[in-house]
Amino acid sequence: MKTVLAGNSTYLAGVADLFEKEGFEIKLASSPYEARALVDEHPVVLVSRSEVSPFITDSQYAWRLIRKVNPLETIVMLLNKDSDSNPYLWKLVLERAIEIASGKRHVCVLCKSVGSRMPGLESLYHEARDLGVSFLKYRSVSLSDEGYTSTITIDDGTDTYNITSPLIIDCTCSPDESVLDYADALRLRTHDNGKINSNRWFLLQGHTSRRNVFYIDTGLMLSLSLEEIVNSIANEIRSTAVITDNTVEIDAKKCAFCYTCYRVCPHGALAPNHDAHAMGVLKSNCSGCGICVAVCPANAIVIGSASHTAHSRSSTEISEEVPDSLEALQTVAFCCENSAAIAARTFAGETNASIVSIPCGGNIDVAQVFQSLNNYKQVIIAVCPDNACKHFDGNSRARLQVERIKKALLAVNKDPDRIKFVQLSHSMPYPLRDALN
Amino acid sequence: MIVAEQKPIEEIVQSIKPYKKLLIAACGTCVTVCMTGGEKEAIELCTLLELVSELEGIQIRVKTIERQCDREFFVDFEEDIEWADAVLSMGCGVGVQFFAELYPGKHIVPALNTKFFGVTRDVGYWTEFCQGCGECLLEKTGGVCPVARCSKSLFNGPCGGSSDGRCEINPDIECAWQIIYDRLKAQNRLDLLLETLPPRDWSSSRDGGPRSLRKSSVYLEVD
Amino acid sequence: MPSLENEYISGLQRAYESGEFVVTAEIGPPMSSNASHVEKSADVLRGVVHAANVTDNQTSIVRMSSLAASYIGLTRGVETILQMTCRDRNRIAIQSDLLGAYALGLRNLLCLSGDHQSLGNHPQSKNVFDLDSIQLIKAVADMKNHSIFINGKKGKNMPKFFIGTTTNPFADPRELQIIRLKKKIEAGAQFVQTQAIYDVDSFESWMSEVRSLGLHNEVYIQAGILVNKSLRSMEMTKKVSGMSIPDELIERMRNSENQEEEGITIALEIIDRLRKIEGLSGIHIMAVGWEKIVPTIIERAGLMPTFDSNHSD
User: Fold this and answer.
1) Range of the domain at A93
2) What is the mean predicted confidence (pLDDT) over A318-327?
């Protein structure tokens, strides 16, 4: 098995050894350009090292400091002062905050956005809250030292106030800038606006927005050792060699070669085929979200072997008892299979609405929605909450389409409220249920 | 690429109201790429029109003509064109007119407003680059066209309304002369701007009347 | 009433050439066909300024034509400066207007690109910009110096205007704006009026750049002065693209109990500082909506012209 290593050269050798022990043949990419040239053929592992506040990483030192603080005084953890923090730093901060708060200390976390919605961190956040950790949102802060204590001035947009504490822990994480060029070349994305920025949400240990691109941050090792991370990536590379059929297909005859799909694909799964003068699909990257299907202006893309109807449908009906007469149905809900469709199963027997599972909110087929408005009284589009789309912006795309459909309905004198937009996670069926009733 | 946008749906409804059998003709070229008149948009428009109560009973067919500016691409659709009372062309202004010329007895209705020649800046975002004025001077302006991209088509530098690189008429518009200046400065070629360009001969543009072009090495005149 | 003979030379040009510190102001034509409005404006300025600009559908709002209003002004004994923009006329109309204007006795011409029509009251209109302001200056200079039209053909009795233009020391990109001023001078501009100056320090640095290029020896430079009647008027002015007003002046206006007087004081202070700048040949006072204050300003600045009626020699 051949794999490409790229990134900060200082740390590549050690990682390369570990992959070779796993039985991989390693090629080192010397530049972002080379990594981009190789990524269509081989998996790429991007290696870097972020600098994290020593306090956060070294808890022995942390405890020595904290013991010196009067137990009645608040310990302030200042997060994302210089740049937004990635989920990893959030995880570190939450874990430390819990550790400190468990020792009966008052902890206050200052942050630019409260992290309850941080994917995968909900339980840590709630644990911290239960232990009395307070979270304060700010827009800007300034620090001043007065001998033993420091005062932090916080502006949250409406008010300015001060917190004094003998120990302010600056939790800023300094990213390894060299990795950003690679990330750019490899078309990795963030939640923000599709661009790589200092926010770097793609940096989840072992994972990125592209299926065959992996990430190791040797500066952000947590409970796992480097060996364990390499092992898990190795296993994943082995397993993704098996391609599922849940991928898209492009009709080269219809393709206008406009690059729209190439630009929107969150997984870098489309690559131009210049011989065919059409776009091609990298099956190993495609996760079948169908965002490209929805945006393709030539209607040239379908998911899997879905039947080619005039209104090429990419979705599959999962409601088990579809009545013969559609007139009996009041409502149809197009539900993202990652959230709303799962949530809908919990009340499947209680509703006579038709639940249509779609691979992602970004896959909404507007023509199908218009058709549904002919057959149903109400159409619901139910997608993942903000920042929780596994395909990054499918939910935002769905919102834009709903706005457009509402405008069109208004323009032809139809009630725009016949289409509703709902966001929910797979574990909270109520918003969808309420919308259905 | 020719960039167009769809007409307001109210306007389209008004113009097709008299007809019972409508052919929606998408065009597979520029307007597909600018996400306005391709097959996807045509099908969406069709399904939306089916919702309109004023149009009840209308029959609609959707077909995609690869290029509405070349006659050979129409051949496969003669039966559909024959069938329809009217054609709602989703081509640019060129496509609509050529359709009307090829089928002079047919009512041809435009679905789009044709806007400009431009580039794709981002998915769903296009900007104007060229006006087809017939005499290109881009070698003198660092590859930025003052005719198309300066609001006043000034030839010898910016007006006094350029501020922070933005045009006085709208901060969304970049000052073309700021771009020209920045680019030439970076290339160390500001001396190009010292030359005063004389009044343009606009007869090569639309001002010389509708234009045509015959490539002498290919075009055989038939009596 | 000046002579309509072709030999008559611009009084403004003579004032410049004799080294006087030149003062001009503005006549804004009305949004009507009422000649007496222009006459009243002219009466206020007669004997007070060397000449008065007559704006050409300023800010793209339809008004009486600059040509007609300039003539009316002239008949009331005020030397006028015909403003001509490239926005509304192609080269045929421009040259035809120039012939007509000269025949009516107008001798001063200010060449401008013109505000874009989308900023005015007919944003639906089509613009022309057949020429740009530099090409216009060149065309007028060619008429004067070579007796030719834009097409290169010889003409008879061609107009010999005293040619002016404008420049904005605060617009971007600065280096290119200076290049542009140079090109205007090369094209034949003889005097130049600047955008309104509030930030004298910044203007001084612009002037030193102009002096280092020797441009002040090739063209008469007149600094623009805008007189604000109120805080609101000053704030509106600040919003205009390419206009720079120091916050300190806005604060002074805000804190003043008599904003009209404060507006005058500020204008006088600016004039006072400007007069000390080397290479400056005059000032151009704009008192949009407050024209009757102009004589007061000029008198209090000690700039009353020495002539009593401008063309009676």
Assistant:
1) 52-174
2) 44
